[in-house]
Amino acid sequence: MEIHGFAEPRFTAVREAFAGNIDRYGEIGAAVCVYYHGRPVVDLWAGMADPDAGRPWRRDTPQVVFSATKGVVAACAHLLVQRGDLDLDAPVARYWPEFAAAGKDRIPVRWVLSHRSGVAALDRPLSSAEVTAWDPVTKAVAAQAPAWEPGTAHGYHAFTYGWIVGELVRRVSGRGIGTFLREEIADPFGLDVWIGLPDDEQHRASRIVAPPLDLSGLDRSSLVVRALLSTDEPLDLNRPDLRAAEIPAVNAACTAHALARFYAALAGPVDGRRILDPATLAAATAEQAAGVDRILGTPTRWALGFGLPTPDVPWFTPTLFGHAGHGGSLGFADPASGLAFGYVMNRIHSTVEPDRRASDLAVAAQAAAR
């Protein structure tokens, strides 16, 4: 598999790790980008965007990044916080009165962003038609009772995070999350990132390659399953209508370059500009919750919309923040080292073994930056 792009000599190890992913882990199509102190030092891509059609991966190939979407959504919310339009400690119901139903009147915005609101799952799974329409989703979320006493524990809001934060952005700014992202962050910073991939960009998108998901034997009424699925059937994000919808916990489409540049512009200036000022970023990335996650069942650490690595992660540093996505995608920034990182791929690994692809790339980048 031919590797395209460049890696500066200091970061040759990232190219070697990328080649290793192809040889050892069976990449189909993938890209990695690293920024260092505000400029790109690695930008590599290889393989097939659509192996069935024989369409090659290109530098501008957008890939659905699943939950790596959540970091992008967080930046939209914090931009409103920075402007004084959204108060982290105000109740969600101040901006969205219907959300006060079922005992949720005192849940602050802060608890939603840190997965502590308790509104981690819906009692009734939604159809794909409801998900693409938006209003049925927000009505269901507004009516939902918390699964635990808000503020007393944290548990991954796999889908509801995006719907709640997305509706807050819409209520406060008057724009849907996809439009807000495009107008306030993507266009000003030259980022190929969308929540709601436009029709005229669909032909560029990479095709997800994943084994069928076997739902037999799952207790669809359990809190964990309801949180991690939320829909009556797993969403097929190869479908153009689902890529075009706003599903702001899981369906951002972006290039590796855009993901790395996005995090670089959060952590510091890129071409003389940054997305959030230092004080807003410091508040956004401060730890809010840590310990065993009520949904995932493993230790997690959360800032306000951004994940914080646990010390057992190979690429852990105490100043790093970002978000990973189902199947292997990863974006992060580390202001202390000046690194920003983006990795996207279309092969969803189904093995129970840890997925080393993003980890090996991130560790190589960190070693080169020392």
How is the topology of this model organized?
Layout (H helix, E strand, L loop, with lengths): L2 E5 L4 H14 L3 E8 L2 E12 L4 E2 L6 E2 L4 H14 L9 H4 L13 H5 L14 H6 L1 H9 L16 H14 L3 H13 L3 E3 L27 H7 L10 H5 L7 E3 L1 H12 L10 H7 L4 E4 L6 E4 L4 E2 L12 E4 L5 E5 L4 E7 L11 H13 L1
Antiparallel strand pairs: 1-3, 2-3, 2-13, 3-4, 5-7, 6-7, 8-9, 9-10, 11-12, 12-13
In brief:
The protein is 33% helix and 16% strand.
What is the 3D shape?
globular
CATH H-level homologous superfamily name? DD-peptidase/beta-lactamase superfamily
Poorly predicted regions are none
What's the CATH topology name?
A: Beta-lactamase
Structural summary, described in words:
The protein has 370 residues and is α+β, with helices and mostly antiparallel strands. The chain has a single domain (3-369), classed as Beta-lactamase. Helix content is 33%, strand content 16%. It has 13 helices and 13 strands. The strands form 3 sheets. Strands 1, 2, 3, 4, 11, 12 and 13 form a 7-stranded antiparallel sheet that branches. A 3-stranded antiparallel sheet has the order 5-7-6. It has a 3-stranded antiparallel sheet with strand order 8-9-10, with no helix packed on it. Strand 2 (29-36) and strand 3 (39-50) form a beta hairpin. Helix 2 packs parallel to helix 7. The two termini are 30 Å apart.
Which short descriptors sum up this protein?
single chain, 370 residues, three-stranded antiparallel β-sheet
